[in-house]
Write a structure and sequence with these properties.
The complex is a heterodimer of chains A (112) and B (113). With 112 residues, chain A is mainly β. Helices cover 0% and strands 57% of the residues of chain A. Chain A contains no helices and 11 strands. In chain A, strands 2, 4, 5, 9, 10 and 11 form a 6-stranded mixed sheet that branches. A 5-stranded antiparallel sheet of chain A has the order 1-3-8-7-6, with no helix packed on it. In chain A, strand 9 and strand 10 form a beta hairpin. Chain B has 113 residues and is an all-beta fold. Helix content of chain B is 0%, strand content 49%. In chain B, the strands form 2 sheets. In chain B, strands 2, 4, 5, 6, 9, 10 and 11 form a 7-stranded mixed sheet that branches. Chain B has a 4-stranded antiparallel sheet with strand order 1-3-8-7, with no helix packed on it. The chains are: A mainly beta (112), B mainly beta (113). At the A-B interface, strand 4, strand 5, strand 9 and strand 10 of A face strand 4, strand 5 and strand 10 of B.
């Protein structure tokens, strides 16, 4: 059973547009939510992360929005660039644990 | 500074053979993790080491899989009697301590013929 559900599976965005990727979870024990970016042939690279005590976190063009009551969180990429084309994974870790539970990934393509 | 290093980057072997995959974590990182990523999927947790000991091995699929970290740094993931279903990218990550951000290597792509 997939503990973190991610959508969409793929996304095509025009350069300069906003890319939005959504994730949802059921396990209320999750207390840390990172996003990873992965290029072909490379390992996942940590982009940005949030804990449930805040509703939003912004780092440069990347913003996480977190809705604790709805058990949903999303990644927004502002001013999307062709170099942002990659697969993005949301993930979560339960309190007291150390293993990441990953979503199924979103393949983002930014068209020049 | 150097990131997480995994060797080999690719490994092709025949069904039934034994394989060892190596992970060199970031210097000073006490926590080390192994994940497995199948094509088109997110990584799945296998095992977590804090220092030399396996603190959580709940993700190992069966007793053909084993991992060690004898000196609290380098780790080796060992797979016995490999099966075609073991084909995947095996990723290693490390963090400065428990409950800290995990940094991944580029993985070993394992293909079982």
């Amino acid at each position: 059973q997939q503990q973190v559900k991610q959508s969409p599976q793929s996304l095509i965005v025009q350069k300069g547009g906003i890319s939005i990727i959504n994730c949802a979870y059921e396990n209320t024990a999750f207390d840390y939510f990172p996003w990873y970016q992965q290029f072909p042939g490379k390992g996942p690279a940590l982009l940005i992360a949030i804990r449930p005590d805040v509703s939003e976190k912004k780092e440069g063009r990347f913003t996480i929005s977190f809705n604790k009551s709805a058990k949903q969180f999303s990644l927004h990429i502002m001013d999307s660039q062709p170099g942002d084309s990659a697969t993005y994974f949301c993930a979560a870790i339960p309190t007291g644990a150390n293993n990441l539970f990953f979503g199924t990934g979103t393949r983002l393509t930014v068209i020049p | 500074g150097a990131g997480v290093s995994q060797t080999p980057s690719n490994k092709v072997t025949e069904k039934g053979k034994y394989v060892e995959l190596r992970c060199d974590p970031i210097s000073g990182h006490t926590a080390l993790y192994w994940y497995r990523q199948s094509l088109g999927q997110g990584p799945e947790f296998l095992i977590y080491f804090q220092g030399t000991g396996a603190a959580d091995d709940s993700g190992l699929p069966n007793d053909r899989f084993f991992a060690v970290r004898p000196e609290g740094s380098v780790s080796t993931l060992k797979i016995q009697r490999t099966e075609r279903g073991d084909s995947a990218v095996y990723l290693c990550a490390s963090s400065i301590g428990p409950n800290q951000p995990q940094h991944f290597g580029d993985g070993t792509r394992l293909s079982i013929l």
